[in-house]
Amino acid sequence: xxxxxxxxxxxxxxxxxxxxxxxxxxxxxxxxxxxxxxxxxxxxxxxxxxxxxxxxxxxxxxxxxxxxxxxxxxxxxxxxxxxxxxxxxxxxxxxxxxxxxxxxxxxxxxxxxxxxxxxxxxxxxxxxxxxxxxxxxxxxxxxxxxxxxxxxxxxxxxxxxxx
Length: 163
Hints:
The protein is 36% helix and 18% strand. By secondary structure, it is of the alpha+beta class. α2 packs antiparallel against α3.
C-alpha cells in the first residue's frame, strides 16, 4: 500500500480533526489568521507551515532603592548577625610554604626535611577559609599544641582582601 492509497482511505472526519486541533491551539495563542492558513494547507495534505508567532511582551522597568552609606550600623544589623553566628568555618594555621618539583616530592620519605619560606621563630599565619585573619605563635597547653594570637588583622583589612 502506497502513501497515496493511505491518504485516500483515511476517513474525512479523522483528517478534519487534526486541522481543528491545530486551529484551536493557534487560536489560544492569539494567532487566528495563521490558524486558518494552516488548516487549509493541512487539508490539502501538506505539512502545516510553522507560522511565526508574534507575542507582545510587556516589560516593567526595575526600580531600586538608593543604597545608604551610613557610618552607623542599622539597629537591626545585630539581629541579622545572629543568623550567621553558628555557621562553621575552617580555621587553619600555616607554618610556611615551599614549592618543589614532583621528582623531589616522590623522593620524600620518613626523616626527610623540607625547607619552608619562614624563619625559625617567625609568627604563623592563621587562616579562615584560606583568608588570612591573624598571626600567632605556637604554644603547648595540656600536652596539646595551640596558637597564641599576636596580631589580628582588622575587619576593614579583611574585607578589602575579600574583594
